[in-house]
Design a protein that fits this description.
CATH superfamily: Nitrogenase molybdenum iron protein domain
Number of helices: 9
Largest sheet: 5 strands, mixed
CATH class: Alpha Beta
Length: 184
């Protein structure tokens, strides 16, 4: 962001914008940390299977980190680094069954679309409880995902979305979901 601002002769504006995003993220994550110090963090499952493999992030992955900063506890794979690795679908279903929330379910916009991918999903508690959220609230032409486009430079908004999902009592008066939508 700052590099592009420098190229266009607007470095100060780029730095101000970058710093405001960082400040927003840090202050939000601090409020969440204070709140979750005395509460249980919800367990969070992410993704859906792709070609008979379910990919989960490692602990240092971007999604696992932002979920943690938002007061959640993401199921992850073992190992250092920030890569994602495939796990067995049966293990993933066990994680999903014990999860409090399920995020980033591919291109699904409804629970029916999700359960049509695999009928076993219909019996997963988070699906029954309708605690499934996808990052498809905003799209770009022709079929892009704004989450993966503008969200890259707006982690503060993603953090607030996740806080709104996991701990709405912290942020509900100042934020509405931007990238995420609840599946019905």
């Amino acid at each position: 962001m700052v590099a592009v601002a420098e190229i266009t002769g607007r470095r100060e504006i780029g730095e101000e914008h970058f710093n405001s995003i960082a400040t927003s993220y840090i202050s939000t994550s601090q409020r969440i940390a204070e709140h979750t110090a005395t509460t249980t963090r919800p367990r969070v499952m992410i993704n859906t299977p792709y070609r008979d493999a379910w990919v989960l992030p490692s602990e240092n992955n971007y999604m696992a980190r932002i979920i943690s900063d938002a007061g959640g506890c993401c199921y992850t794979t073992e190992g250092k680094g920030n890569t994602s690795k495939p796990i067995d679908i049966e293990q993933a279903l066990l994680y999903a069954e014990s999860a409090d929330f399920w995020l980033n379910v591919g291109s699904c916009h409804t629970l029916q679309e999700l359960t049509s991918q695999n009928p076993r999903f219909a019996k997963v508690k988070v699906v029954e409880d309708k605690k499934v959220y996808n990052n498809t609230a905003r799209s770009t032409a022709p079929v892009g995902s704004d989450f993966w486009e503008s969200g890259v430079v707006r982690p503060d908004i993603i953090l607030k979305d996740l806080a709104m999902i996991f701990h709405p009592e912290i942020i509900a008066q100042e934020h509405t979901l931007y990238y995420y939508t609840r599946l019905n």
